[in-house]
Amino acid sequence: MDDTEQATAVRTGADGTAPYDVAAEARWVPEPDKRPGRTAFQRDRARVLHSAALRRLAGTTQVVAPMLSDFPRTRLTHSLECAQVGRELGAALGCDPDLVEAACLAHDLGHPPFGHTGEEALDVAAAACGGFEGNAQSLRILTRLEPKRFAPPGGPPTRLAPWPGRSVGLNLTRAALDAATKYPWTRGGHPTEPRSSKYGVYAEDLPVFRWVRAAVPPGRRCFEATVMDWSDDVAYSVHDLEDGLHAGHVDPAALTGRAERAELFAVAARYAPGASADEFGEALDRLQAQEWWPRSYDGSARDRARLKDTTSQLIGRFCLAAERATRERHGPGRLTRYRAELVVPYGVRLECAVLKAVAVRYVMQRADQAELRSRQRVVIAELAEVLLRDAPHGLDPVFLAMFEEAGDDRSRLRAVVDQIASLTDASALALHRTLVQER
Fold it and tell me: Is 186 helix (H, G, I), strand (E, B) or coil?
């Protein structure tokens, strides 16, 4: 089978129908294929994989700051793990694997230095321009900040078209941008929880968002986005548990104590609102009853091998449960775009929530981490203050151009926030030393 035949096999179902139509493969700025035989989604995956924004995640906090441990997971390693999970789960359900992998690789591009602590601090700093949210920043990176393609000059801007001559980022397909959008609404626009802090687009990026979401019911996520979202949950819940055990922060024996379990389940309630302590207890009991569940961990080669088996078993457990439940509801065939919704059994979601809580309870809530996060908030706040006050001094060329082109204070602040969000943990600290501490 040659490249063209392979591309056709991926794009076409057994009945000869194409699960991804011309609209799904469209790009905001049309561009010709450079090499025959590559699918549109293979190009999307390659663009994300080779982006500077993805490389930056190697220096961005996942749970433990990159400089505080020899081999910590970073946002980059998490994104690669999420992509592996998503590619296989998506393929099993009939999605284009390159499309799902591209979405998984892209899903965390907008996370700023210092992880969720940096995100919260930037949201405060960006209050006057609409706030900051990592997922909305991801869309902004993909469609504007990562330089790859520019809209042609000339012609008036329209409600759905890119501004003439402006960067359109990686210029991914509509389906890839849709799949990478975990929260397809603006701030305060959550379809069922108006107070939710999660959203996926800033007001100034609505033109491309409207183009991506053309003819789609408001708030509804495409199937590939739900696969990406569950793959994200699986990857970080399982691997954060692995990191906690490896670092010595998690003692498996402690998870059997009544008091410890009560505190753990209080944290788990963040991830599964409405679930009872008894339900969380049953979820943890199911995991602890498995032969592969770790009873202890001493860092030996044998225990490391057992821990790797635990992570493999958990990922398989969570993905197979979602695959089977989705097939039971939607039947065989290729499940893509808006033809289905991913189904994750309630009990499995609770098991995942308990694992997330383990990382929060035993790693993120340690006293030394609280002190570190406090210092990181100060760094972000002071960077925003000094960059905005002293601009154009301190701005990189890309963000300097955005600052100078801005027509109002709101847009100028957004350019400053974009620069801070583009930093790694180390470069944020270095810039803070240069602009704040050494002046």
Answer: strand
